[in-house]
Inverse folding.
């Protein structure tokens, strides 16, 4: 997937990590249907104008590869990009420790966007629940 | 950076700047235009020349032009002034839900003072029909206020057809013509509007100055909102900012000379932009395309979130078409009044073109928008092509 070719200028005042991840969106996309070892977690709603879908591919008990898709503001898109990158190499037990507060700190998410961090936590925990079912 | 927000404001025309400068400095005519001495009379003459230039673009008499600080003040003076002069008790105003905030907020203020206000809902294409307005009239209706060219979607209301109908019924008619002046021909000799608001900075004049047209025959009476030395026939006291009004006059004179050429060029570039954007599926043009001012194009993009769309276009200066701030991403009340759902109202862009806009800029802007909308749609887990 192509990343956007914006200038580095951030005229909207987003925090540096949010702006960088929004511009680059590393790991954006989805695994081919039927890819082995993939679990998917989704959170949010269209009505709330933010939906985050995370995909984690486990290999030997650890996350070997990741993808995400997001519909929402730049903060929620950056949250998706950050979580999947952070997940790489981790076990399910390690992933389960992630909380919205840590996301807010890592991405410098302001109070009025706290819901974006919660969206991330919810999507990751939905993926872990799907893993438990598997 | 590609600037496509000329409906928000325009740069000062170079000739307008030159016209203004002598009225700021000691070597020029800095005197108070109300002073009764030589330099004062000289400044006064410049003010009156500017008044005639503004009147000329509108087909008005110079004595019908009252200087203000801008269109917000003009709209406040028109509505509060007319209602207060008549008396607020049992008074009724008719306006539309898609008016500029400064008209809607003034109406809400008047409601707290006991005035009854009817807010008409336009058709889905943004049009408020004269019949709708007539139906809303009551015996106590004092004034109808409508925007000539909507500032968000560019829809042109049928003001020339409505005005005589209101005149026949003895109802005052106020028109916010901020986006119409310099874009459409306006002839107040032929169209019986009583009060009409204009601004300088939307047509290459300076910010901080506007005017209210107040008809002399029959005379539209206003209670002043700014009391003081009785300037502007007692309707708006305060020392005139000579350089500002001179700038507005110069800008209006240039606009009058260029009206047709500007309108043709703007419409042709605007149509090019809309044509290029057709490369995207599932986009919607807001407002009736057959009745749109030449400089405006408002488009909703299905499947993308509005804030992300604007952020994805950091080198394009366009308006979101909404009163959105980073804290409260409130979708446009204008688009919602037309029946667009929240998602489409939020995912909209208002492109507004100006004299500086080139075909190359339009091509580049269209390319950027197409690319970023496609990217955000691909990124979305909800998008189904």
């Amino acid at each position: 997937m192509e990343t956007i070719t914006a200038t580095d200028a951030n005229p909207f005042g987003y925090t540096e990590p949010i702006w960088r991840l929004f511009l680059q969106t590393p790991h954006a996309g989805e695994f081919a249907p039927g890819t082995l070892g993939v679990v998917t977690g989704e959170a949010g709603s269209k009505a709330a104008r933010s939906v985050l879908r995370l995909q984690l591919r486990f290999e030997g008990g650890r996350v070997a590869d990741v993808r995400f898709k997001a519909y929402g503001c730049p903060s929620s898109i950056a949250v998706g990009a950050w979580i999947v990158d952070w997940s790489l190499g981790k076990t399910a037990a390690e992933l389960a420790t992630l909380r919205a507060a840590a996301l807010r700190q890592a991405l410098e998410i302001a109070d009025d966007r706290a819901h974006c961090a919660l969206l991330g936590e919810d999507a990751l925990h939905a993926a872990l629940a799907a893993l438990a079912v598997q | 950076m590609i600037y496509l927000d000329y409906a928000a404001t325009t740069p000062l025309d170079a000739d307008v700047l030159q016209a203004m400068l002598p009225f700021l400095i000691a070597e020029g005519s800095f005197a108070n235009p109300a002073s009764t001495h030589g330099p004062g009379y000289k400044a006064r003459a410049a003010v009156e020349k500017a008044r005639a230039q503004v009147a000329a673009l509108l087909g008005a008499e110079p004595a019908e032009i009252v200087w203000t600080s801008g269109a917000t003040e003009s709209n406040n003076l028109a509505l509060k002034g007319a209602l207060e002069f008549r008396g607020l008790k049992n008074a009724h105003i008719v306006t539309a839900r898609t008016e500029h905030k400064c008209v809607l907020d003034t109406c809400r203020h008047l409601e707290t003072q006991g005035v009854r206000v009817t807010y008409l809902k336009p058709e889905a294409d943004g049009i408020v029909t004269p019949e709708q307005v007539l139906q809303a009239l009551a015996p106590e209706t004092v004034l109808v206020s409508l925007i000539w060219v909507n500032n968000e979607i560019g829809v042109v209301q049928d003001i020339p057809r409505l005005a005589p109908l209101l005149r026949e019924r003895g109802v005052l008619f106020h028109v916010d013509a901020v986006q119409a002046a310099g874009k459409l021909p306006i002839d107040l000799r032929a169209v019986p509007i009583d009060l009409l608001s204009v601004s300088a900075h939307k047509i290459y004049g300076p910010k901080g100055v506007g005017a209210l047209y107040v008809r002399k025959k029959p005379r539209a009476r206003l209670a002043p909102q700014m009391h003081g030395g009785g300037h502007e026939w007692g309707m708006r006291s305060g020392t005139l900012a000579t350089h500002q009004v001179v700038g507005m006059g110069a800008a209006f004179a240039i606009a009058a000379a260029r009206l047709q050429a500007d309108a043709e060029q703007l419409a042709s570039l605007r149509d090019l932009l809309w044509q290029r954007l057709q490369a995207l599926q599932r986009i919607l043009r807001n407002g009736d395309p057959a009745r749109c001012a030449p400089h405006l194009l408002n488009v909703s993009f299905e499947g993308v979130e509005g804030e992300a769309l604007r952020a994805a276009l950091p080198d394009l200066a366009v308006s979101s078409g909404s009163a959105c701030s980073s804290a409260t991403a409130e979708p446009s009340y204008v688009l919602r009044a037309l029946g667009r759902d929240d998602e489409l109202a939020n995912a909209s862009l208002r492109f507004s073109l100006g004299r500086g806009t080139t075909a190359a800029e339009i091509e580049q802007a269209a390319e950027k928008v197409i690319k970023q909308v496609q990217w955000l749609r691909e990124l979305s887990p909800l998008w189904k092509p």
Q: What stands out?
A: The longest helix of chain B spans residues 242-277. Chain B touches chain A through 25 residues (CB under 8 Å).
